[in-house]
Task: inverse folding
């Protein structure tokens, strides 16, 4: 589970008025569908009740007196109403279903688009899995709430009300008996749902533990075997499955007892109807058709009541889902274009950090009072230990984050004066772990400039020295790279992302060299591609390789958020300081590898 | 704890096989279901007598309250049996699911390495969770749902027969049509649902891709483009959702009309029979109830029939795990004092029985000595040590431990006596204490744990965590550095106290400073144990009692450091390269200094 350091806010499942109206608002643009399904389901429920009344009349007025033609007339009406019912059934399924899909579509779009605006600070602290559930299952539940759950409710209400009305019409004294039984039923149902929902919640939580145990058992299988843990592991896992069995069994037990109780209570009500009804019949106040109708109505009414627990539980979940979805929509991006922001034409590759402070967490400063002036066309190599602040500097240049104090100037102006869109389109970024999107090689390179022609894409690939390997692929530029580029090696992905950056014709290049092992030939190609890219543009390179470091105009040794050393390769070496240590260590490592010492 | 062995491969007999031990419970539950349905039907018979009684005889034969009590009595019976059914069916399904989960779990940890090498984690997890759940639903929902429809049909049809044979036959005219419609439509609904779900998966993965690639998206300012791309997937889902919906919206009204037609026809027929005196009015009242219970449930039948195929597919997937042979862990010598003398005699090994990974290797290692293995990636070093704990079996030759062939020992015995420290050790998401004691099968005192941790020079770091030894490791707890993980794994091995030790490149994943720390810990671990070291750095090899250089599965050089550097060969070459690098570095530094 990814939800480790991420503290989820707790979302209540009590329906507040604000949340309720906001949920309904999602349906508002499609109000004809909403009104449509409500009307259709009401007609459906009412017509069903009315049809029962028709059968009652047929029995009393036609069957018992032996009036054949009248019977046929009643049954014709009855049959036609069923055809009407078929129509309304179609109507509510279509309207509610369509509305549901619409709402899901709208909300997903809104959520996704909002995600494109959110800042990195949000993604840093929010697990991807969490966001994906917001975009999928939560949205599903919200749409279910406005459609199927609402439909269930309207159906239950119309059903119960019309059944009650007809019962009162037939015999109000007997109807009163049913009316008394109803609240008792509903109270019991609500009481039960609390326990049932509680048990199912337990089942879900144990279930995710079981999945976790499987995961560990599979990924850790070597060490489990080596440490002879099979028996103990199985017995620990056995406890988990026993708990699962216990919780599921309790949930089953509770559900299994709930339905019979509802049935029994309705049976008691109907028993009472039979008893009093007999006397009433004797007095001529009740009919055989009436008895037939009462048993139908009471059976009808039982279904919504026994469904209550399920619907109520689903609605609770849906409300919590809605609040999570809304909380994401309400999250404000930390970095926003100011109202006066304008599209910058060119930043001229000129960057200056002016007394920049930065932290991710308030009492843990990463950069403090950091100043640096970069001349156009200069290549800056950033070296130093992990966590020292190299990536932070690069993130600030990209404006993935903004300085907490101080300024970053580009082309002499605070870069917050520019729109993010225009600023970022001047950048070319190559990441340490190159990210490719599913699609073809061509699509991925073209990501750098969407209106580039095929020829331009190929040209960029050639400049990046990626063309040769691409030409060797079975489908060449049309080769599918697989999800997240899994079908290519890290080096190949790096070459493609270089081509992508070259195609973008950026003014400022930001590069994070890959640390993972890449074969020497590919690495040479990458080096050449980098040189092409860096030619003439301002570049920031988080450097791990000697050749890159040596070629840089200036090297910055960054440690603890400060520039420990700065200067050219030569100057820094002669200083015999941090850089000297770093360099000699890297020299040994790289040469060992180059000479195939132990690989 | 019950685990299942020898399951059948076909899903039909397999689903029957899984019921073993639950059959009495399950089939009695289905029998209770029949009683439950019958009790419901009996309620209508009470109604029938009641109606005929009050209408025909001005004088009542029974007090009215009897009818009520009978009605309630049958409802009670029905409730009781409905409860028993749900409990029995549910208990069976959960019990089978529990057995399956336990069996799969146990089976997975006992499957051979060759199996794990070829199988993806996600796939195994999917099979162990979703597919088990589908099998659970097969018993809990599908079988009991189908049998309920069956009982309702049979018992109520029987009841109508009892009332009037002709009426009964006229009441089921539409049933074949209805069954056909239901099965036909639900197959379509099922298919359209699957395609809807597929698209749902695509929507999720496109969100995922966008989020994992967020840096690229922002860096190239491609938000608009991403929105459009997502909208395509989103629209496709909307479209497929509509198709799924239309199938539903077609099926329910059309089957409704068929059911209603049967109902109208039945009621009219019954009514004319009453008028002709062939049927009592009480019969008719009961008949309407019976008719409803026959027809309407069939509407639902197709849903279950369509789902049966999923259960069968899921069974096949679960069986694909369980049908693989487990390693034999216990056969063989299980309790012998082990000195730690190891001999490889003309040993050949490969993963596909071609004898190509190791070719006739000969090694003799005295108890307590250390053997260092050197060579390029893929030269056979790891394969060689993986034979010791019986992770794989050799192709030819002999592997002798204390003079006996390795096959004579049980795998459990071997593994209890062999400690492995891997390049990237695996820790479990539990407390540090439990991770350290993970390899010993007895109660361990705190002092022993601390002692092991001290020897691995990790005690101090652990004590600096707020929860100390109770600190939870991994995603839900503290994130440990590579060096800390490594040292916890060493402490784990120290506590296990094995006779034979395998150090698989244990220091390559950490930086230089940590390496020194770990080296101390390793040295104390190696004392008096037969040790196989796979290493990439000369420092780790210099002290070894024996150094073996591997190439393409063969030993091309053997000796000790001093002897090996004295003769031309791979080792000397490597050693010289090492020196050459130092020389080069000096030269370069000098050059820079002079010109600078």
Result:
């Amino acid at each position: 589970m990814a939800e480790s350091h991420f503290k989820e806010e707790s979302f209540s499942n009590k329906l507040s008025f604000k949340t309720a109206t906001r949920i309904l608002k999602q349906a508002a643009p499609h109000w004809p569908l909403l009104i449509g399904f409500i009307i259709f389901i009401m007609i459906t429920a009412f017509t069903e009740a009315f049809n029962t009344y028709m059968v009652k009349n047929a029995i009393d007025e036609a069957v018992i007196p032996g009036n054949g033609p009248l019977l046929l007339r009643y049954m014709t009406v009855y049959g036609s109403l069923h055809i009407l019912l078929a129509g309304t059934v179609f109507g509510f399924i279509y309207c509610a279903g369509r509305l549901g899909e619409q709402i899901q579509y709208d909300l997903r779009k809104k959520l996704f688009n909002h995600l494109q605006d959110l800042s990195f600070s949000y993604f840093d602290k929010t697990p991807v899995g969490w966001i994906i559930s917001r975009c999928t299952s939560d949205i599903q539940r919200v749409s279910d709430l406005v459609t199927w759950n609402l439909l269930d409710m309207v159906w239950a209400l119309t059903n119960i009300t019309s059944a009650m009305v007809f019962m009162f019409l037939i015999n109000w004294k007997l109807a009163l008996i049913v009316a008394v039984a109803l609240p008792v039923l509903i109270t019991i149902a609500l009481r039960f749902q609390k326990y049932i929902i509680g048990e199912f919640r337990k089942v879900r939580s144990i279930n995710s533990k079981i999945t976790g145990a499987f995961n560990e058992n599979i990924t850790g299988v070597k060490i489990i075997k080596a440490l002879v843990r099979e028996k103990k592991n199985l017995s620990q896992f056995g406890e988990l499955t026993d708990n699962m069995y216990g919780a599921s069994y309790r949930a089953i037990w509770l559900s299994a007892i709930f339905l019979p109780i509802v049935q029994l209570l309705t049976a008691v009500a109907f028993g009472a109807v039979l008893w009093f009804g007999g006397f009433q019949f004797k007095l001529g106040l009740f009919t055989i058709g009436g008895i037939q109708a009462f048993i139908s109505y009471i059976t009808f009414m039982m279904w919504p009541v026994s469904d209550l627990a399920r619907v109520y539980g689903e609605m609770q979940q849906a409300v919590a889902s809605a609040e999570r979805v809304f909380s994401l929509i309400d999250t404000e991006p930390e970095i926003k274009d100011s109202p006066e922001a304008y599209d910058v034409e060119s930043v001229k590759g000129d960057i200056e950090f002016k007394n920049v402070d930065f932290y991710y967490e308030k009492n843990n400063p990463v950069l403090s009072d950091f100043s640096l002036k970069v001349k156009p066309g200069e290549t800056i190599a950033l070296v130093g230990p992990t966590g020292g602040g190299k990536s932070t500097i690069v993130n600030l240049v990209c404006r993935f984050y903004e300085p907490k104090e101080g300024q970053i100037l580009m082309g002499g102006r605070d870069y917050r004066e520019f729109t993010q869109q225009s600023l970022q389109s001047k950048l070319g970024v190559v990441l340490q772990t190159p990210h490719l999107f599913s699609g073809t090689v061509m699509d991925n390179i073209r990501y750098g400039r969407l209106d580039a022609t095929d020829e331009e894409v190929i040209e960029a690939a050639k400049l990046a020295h990626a063309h040769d390997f691409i030409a060797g692929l079975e489908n060449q530029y049309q080769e599918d790279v697989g999800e997240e580029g899994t079908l290519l090696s890290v080096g190949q992905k790096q070459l493609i992302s270089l081509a992508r950056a070259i195609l973008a014709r950026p003014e400022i290049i930001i590069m994070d060299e890959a640390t993972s092992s890449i074969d020497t030939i590919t690495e040479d190609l990458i080096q050449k591609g980098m040189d092409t890219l860096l030619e003439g543009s301002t570049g920031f390179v988080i450097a791990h390789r000697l050749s890159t470091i040596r070629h840089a105009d200036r090297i910055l040794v960054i440690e603890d958020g400060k520039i420990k050393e700065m200067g050219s390769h030569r100057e820094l070496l002669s200083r015999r300081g941090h850089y000297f240590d770093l360099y000699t260590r890297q020299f040994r490592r790289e040469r060992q590898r180059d000479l195939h010492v132990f690989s | 704890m019950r685990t299942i062995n020898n399951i059948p491969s076909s899903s039909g007999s397999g689903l029957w096989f899984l019921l073993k031990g639950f059959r009495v419970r399950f089939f009695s539950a289905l029998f209770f279901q029949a009683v439950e349905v019958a009790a419901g039907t009996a309620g209508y018979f009470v109604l029938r007598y009641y109606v005929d009684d009050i209408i025909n005889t001005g004088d009542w034969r029974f007090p009215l309250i009897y009818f009520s009590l009978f009605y309630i009595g049958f409802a009670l019976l029905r409730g009781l049996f409905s409860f028993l059914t749900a409990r029995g069916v549910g208990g069976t399904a959960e019990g089978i699911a529990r057995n399956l989960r336990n069996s799969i779990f146990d089976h997975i940890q006992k499957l051979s390495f060759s199996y794990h090498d070829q199988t993806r984690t996600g796939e195994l997890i999917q099979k162990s969770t979703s597919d088990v759940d589908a099998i659970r639903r097969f018993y809990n929902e599908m079988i009991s749902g189908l049998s309920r429809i069956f009982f309702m049909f049979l018992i109520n049809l029987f009841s109508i027969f009892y009332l009037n044979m002709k009426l009964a036959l006229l009441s089921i005219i539409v049933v074949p049509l209805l069954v056909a419609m239901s099965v036909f439509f639900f197959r379509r609904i099922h298919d359209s649902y699957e395609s809807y779900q597929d698209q749902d998966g695509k929507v999720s993965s496109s969100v995922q891709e966008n989020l994992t690639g967020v840096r690229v998206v922002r860096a190239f300012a491609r938000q608009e483009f991403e929105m459009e791309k997502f909208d395509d997937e989103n629209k496709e889902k909307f479209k497929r959702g509509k198709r799924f919906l239309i199938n539903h919206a077609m099926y329910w009204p059309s089957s409704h009309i068929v059911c209603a037609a049967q109902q109208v026809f039945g009621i009219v027929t019954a009514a004319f029979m009453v008028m002709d005196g062939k049927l009592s009015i009480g019969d008719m009242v009961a008949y309407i109830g019976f008719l409803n219970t026959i027809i309407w449930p069939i509407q639902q039948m197709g849903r279950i029939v369509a789902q049966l195929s999923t259960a069968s597919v899921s069974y096949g997937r679960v069986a694909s795990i369980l049908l693989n042979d487990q390693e034999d862990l216990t056969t063989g010598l299980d309790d012998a004092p082990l000195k730690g003398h190891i001999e490889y005699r003309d040993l050949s090994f490969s993963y596909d029985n071609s004898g190509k990974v190791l070719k006739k290797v000969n090694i003799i290692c005295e108890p307590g000595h250390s053997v260092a293995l050197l060579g390029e990636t893929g030269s056979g070093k790891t394969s060689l040590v993986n034979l010791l704990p019986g992770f794989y079996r050799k192709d030819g030759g002999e592997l002798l431990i204390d003079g006996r062939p390795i096959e004579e020992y049980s795998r459990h015995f071997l593994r209890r006596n062999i400690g492995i420290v891997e390049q990237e050790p695996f820790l479990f998401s539990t407390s540090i204490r439990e991770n350290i004691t993970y390899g010993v099968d007895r109660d361990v005192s705190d002092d022993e744990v601390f002692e092991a941790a001290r020897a691995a020079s990790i005690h101090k770091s652990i004590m600096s965590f707020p929860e100390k030894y109770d600190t939870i490791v991994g995603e839900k707890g503290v994130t440990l550095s590579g060096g800390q993980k490594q040292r916890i794994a060493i402490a784990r091995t120290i506590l296990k106290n094995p006779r034979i030790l395998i150090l698989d490149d244990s220091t390559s994943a950490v930086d230089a400073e940590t390496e020194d720390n770990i080296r101390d810990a390793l040295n104390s671990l190696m004392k008096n144990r037969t040790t196989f070291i796979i290493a990439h750095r000369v420092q780790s090899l210099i002290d070894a009692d024996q150094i073996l250089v591997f190439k393409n599965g063969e030993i091309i050089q053997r000796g000790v450091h001093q002897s090996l550097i004295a003769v031309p060969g791979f080792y000397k070459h490597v050693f010289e390269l090492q020196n050459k690098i130092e020389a080069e570095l000096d030269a370069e530094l000098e050059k820079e200094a002079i010109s600078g």
Observations:
- The first strand of chain B starts at residue 342 and ends at 349.
- The mean pLDDT of chain B is 83.
